[in-house]
Amino acid sequence: MIDYELTKEQKDLQGRMVAFCRAEIAPAAAELDAATPDKVPEMLRARFRKLAGAGYFDLLLKADFVSQCVAGEELAKACPATFLAAMSSGTAFGMALSCFGSQAQKTRFLPGVAAGELIGALACTEADAGSDLSGMATKAEKKGDGWVLTGSKDLVTNAPVADAFLVLAWTDREAGLDKGLSLFVVEKGASGLAVGETVETMGLRGAPTAGISLTGCAVSADALVGEAGGGYALLGRITEWIKISLSAMSVGLGVACMEVSTGHGKGKKAFGKPIGLFEGVGAKLAVMFTLNDLGRMMTLRAAWSTDHQETEAPILTASAKLFTSESINKIADLAMQVHGGHGYVKGAAVERLYRDARFAELAYGTSEMQRAFIARDSLNRYKPA
Q1: Helices 231-267 and 313-339 sit at what angle, rounded to 10 degrees?
Q2: Which of 39, 144, 187, 233 fits a disulfide with 35 by CB distance 3.0 to 4.6 angstroms?
Q3: The CATH number of domain 120-229 is 2.40.110.10
Q4: Which CATH code of 1.20.58.760, 1.20.140.10, 3.30.830.10, 1.10.8.60 fits the domain covering 233-381?
Q5: DSSP bridge pairs for 213
Q6: Confidence of residue 133 (pLDDT cuts 50, 70, 90)
Q7: CA distance 180 to 194
Q8: How far apart are CA 228 and CA 376, in angstroms?
């Protein structure tokens, strides 16, 4: 039998995160969402320092995905934007260097990430090459002892506040995806690196996003992460981690929707009784709970499988990401319906959560991409005898 019970340490972690997020993160979530682009960096850095004090970034730098999901769900429930920004720095950038970086890179960057003082970002998407990495244009040419990067990246989470970027570039296009891509660390202030204007997004506005351009951006040989040509495999691993993290984010968002909807169902009355007692509202709450619970189980199963390096881990991760991302959009829609017109008003908690939820089906592999991956696995697995 599979034991879905959390360990004592994980339960203690969950309790600490609940208390911390309730006191330090949730109260200003709406303020962060409404902040102007010039105010977000200062607010986000203050939050990162608080998260570091609570040990959250130390947790993200370690390959313990079940614990990361337990803690991440609570952070995402309190403020999904803070979760996304922290994950982009601690997991997509920090954990990548922790697992694949050189000792010099670990020494240079990881203490700052753990302390919440250094913010990292992953720059892999391009305007004309999202999921299709073969269409990517950014390249890195060997020059002397270093490399020169040229190209641009689109929709980079944390770009406006990042101190360092993990950049994907071609080092040998003729070698193809498997052996032609490489990852580089490019620090803020590097000659030839420019960060574009902050993009105004529909939701998750507290996780600032922008494009970056690299024009003859020279970096040292030490900037290469792993081996030249190994970037595609490394990005695949990093993307798996991100998909697990986004699954936890979707569950946390779902719980937040459930909580505000339950509170509204108890507090608002119609025809002399709380609206939650009406079958139409109660049924929506029941569906929301069921989707949340299933999503959590799938997320923790994928996390456990990844922790134990099971061969099934990638397909379980894709399945969890697909289910939780589509579920949170259903949950957010039901939550809006429970609130009626009051939920449609700008500034309502459910209005913010509704906007935040839409990101889940789009990021790091759309639902269509997850289905295609799962379908290919099924076709390969269940071949005729």
Answers
A1: 30
A2: 39
A3: yes
A4: 1.20.140.10
A5: 152, 194
A6: confident
A7: 25
A8: 29
pLDDT digits (tens, 9 = 90+) for 90-123: 999 999 999 999 999 999 999 999 999 999 999 9
> What pLDDT score was predicted for residue 262?
86
- How crowded is residue 350: how many other Cβ atoms within 10 Å of its Cβ? 22
Lookup: tokens for 289: 């709970």
For the chain, domain boundaries: 8-114, 120-229, 233-381
Structure tokens at 105: 């890179």
| C-alpha separations of 164 from 22, 60, 252, 329, 362 in Å | 30, 17, 28, 32, 24
Mean pLDDT for 356-361 is: 96
Neighbours of 132 (CB within 10 A): 9
What span, in angstroms and rounded, lies between the C-alpha atoms of 90 and 351?
Answer: 28
pLDDT of residue 281: 83
Percentage of the residues of the chain whose pLDDT score is greater than 90: 84
| pLDDT computed for residue 1 by the predictor | 45
Which amino acid is residue 52, in one-letter code? Answer: A
Burial (0-12, 13-18, 19+ Cβ within 10 Å), 49: middle
Which residues, at least 6 apart from 145, have a Cβ–Cβ distance to it below 8 Å? Answer: 220, 221
Whole-number pLDDT of residue 253? 98
C-alpha distances (whole Å) from 343 to each of 171, 325, 355 are 50, 21, 12
> In which element (H, E) is residue 150 found?
strand 146-157
For residues 25 and 79, the answer to whether their CB atoms sit within 8 Å is: yes
Q: Specify the pLDDT at position 384.
A: 67
CATH number assigned to the domain with residue range 8-114, chosen from the 4 options 1.10.540.10, 3.40.50.720, 2.60.40.3080, 1.10.510.10: 1.10.540.10
